Design the sequence.
């Protein structure tokens, strides 16, 4: 991964000495600090398996920063296999970013279920907002603005629109196959320039 990132980052710039860079401009992400905790020590860390490594890194940083504020979380979902579905409304989303290894869900550890968390949303409001703030700092998109039921959801897919409507979905399945079997191939379309640590 590091080698790939290295070539990706510097391959273009080197050629710039001779000719203008042919690559489209890419978003440069400021490298994040290395998380301290290993995935294995995180509550629900197994749900981070099969996600994009840069998202796993952000999940770990979110966990650590929340913990430093006294907010304990556990991951409850991560990669989910794609199953073709009809959007709930016309022009709606055709798939979830979970299907592309680009989203995870979490809950507060003192809430035993999502239902309990939703029932106590007013009580936990401050903690959820703190999580949303940290997530934003890490470049993640939080589901809260879409409705209370999405409060558990965090996603990350730089360079792509939030909802996977037809045009974005078509672009992705061109590289993953129509059944999204090789979902990791979609990551080549992400605008990531970041040296990763080993997760
Ligand atoms: Zn989710």
Sequence:
């Amino acid at each position: 991964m590091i080698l790939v990132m290295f070539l990706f980052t510097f391959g273009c710039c080197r050629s710039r000495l001779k000719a203008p860079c042919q690559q489209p401009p890419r978003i440069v992400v400021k490298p994040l600090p290395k998380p301290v905790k290993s995935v294995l020590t995180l509550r629900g860390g197994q749900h981070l398996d099969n996600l994009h490594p840069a998202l796993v890194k952000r999940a770990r940083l979110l966990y650590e920063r929340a913990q430093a504020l006294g907010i304990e979380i556990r991951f409850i979902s991560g990669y989910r296999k794609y199953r073709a579905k009809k959007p709930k409304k016309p022009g709606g989303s055709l798939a979830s970013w979970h299907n592309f290894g680009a989203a995870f869900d979490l809950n507060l550890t003192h809430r035993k279920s999502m239902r309990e968390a939703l029932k106590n949303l007013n009580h936990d409001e401050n903690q959820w907002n703190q999580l949303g703030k940290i997530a934003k700092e890490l470049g993640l998109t939080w589901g809260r603005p879409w409705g209370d039921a999405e409060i558990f959801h965090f996603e990350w897919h730089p360079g792509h629109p939030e909802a996977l409507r037809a045009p974005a979905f078509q672009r992705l399945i061109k590289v993953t196959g129509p059944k999204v079997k090789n979902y990791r191939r979609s990551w080549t379309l992400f605008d990531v320039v970041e040296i990763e640590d080993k997760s």
Q: What stands out?
A: The mean pLDDT is 85. Residues 77, 98, 103, 105, 153 surround zinc ion (CB under 6 Å). Helices lie at 2-15, 53-68, 114-119, 121-137, 166-176.
